């Protein structure tokens, strides 16, 4: 299930010195040296194309082919980067479809999986709206440029936190035994503790829900009533609840294998 998006939603934006300083200040609030180092690397990665362009300009180098290549990088770099992450995650999705959670107890595979999950969570327009609300008060800042870096630093920080808490933050498969399918949307991974909150409110806990197929979903949770189970079965009431969660968090689109499921939400 893909992520809905508009053309060039992920086009790179050049950062000003003030914006870089702001991002670095946020990164340096993390008390973990390794995470600070990793997250500073995101600034370098996403600013390098502009540094190359500025270097060429400063030396008076003008070449149509070079300009064209740099323009392609600006427009495609991040989307291509996400494509590689998603390609690498196919193996995990195939395991989940087989109801195989063994990768969660392999450190290297778990780190890769959690990074994918957090990238998916932070990359969509619903999260983008929350960020705009939070950063919008900083006059003169290019929110698009700042968020192009912060979505990756956020995914890195949260992903590593989940890895650290892996003993209690566990995967649970949700099997749908009802007559209604699970739906998904352009915000395919949601925090169930964010339901009902305004854009200004920050959820105090994290529990990630990810519908995989019309009959199967994944819950990443620290709920002691659930986190020691490998799988649970849910009926009509719970399916309706999770579908309402997805519907409420979607930006513009929801998807279903059956029209009736969408009509229920529209009429609800």
Number of strands: 7
Unreliable stretches (pLDDT < 50, length at least 5) are 1-9
Multimeric status of the protein = single chain
Give average pLDDT, whole number: 84
Work out the helicity level: 40-55%
> How many domains would you count in the coordinates?
2
Instruction: Write out the strand line-up for the largest beta sheet, numbering strands in chain order.
Output: 3-4-5-1-6
Q: In angstroms, what separates the terminal alpha carbons?
A: 24 Å
Q: Given the structure, what is the number of helices?
A: 8
- Main pleated sheet: 5 strands, mixed
β-sheet strand percentage: 5-15%
H and E string: HHHHHHEEEEEEHEH
Shape designation? globular
Give the radius of gyration.
Answer: 20 Å
Structural class: alpha+beta
Describe this structure in words.
It is a single chain. With 268 residues, the chain is an alpha+beta fold. The protein folds into 2 domains: 158 residues, no CATH class; 101 residues, no CATH class. It is 53% helix and 11% strand. A 5-stranded mixed β-sheet has the order 3-4-5-1-6. A two-stranded antiparallel sheet has the order 2-7. α2 runs antiparallel to α6 and α3 crosses α4. The N terminus is likely disordered.
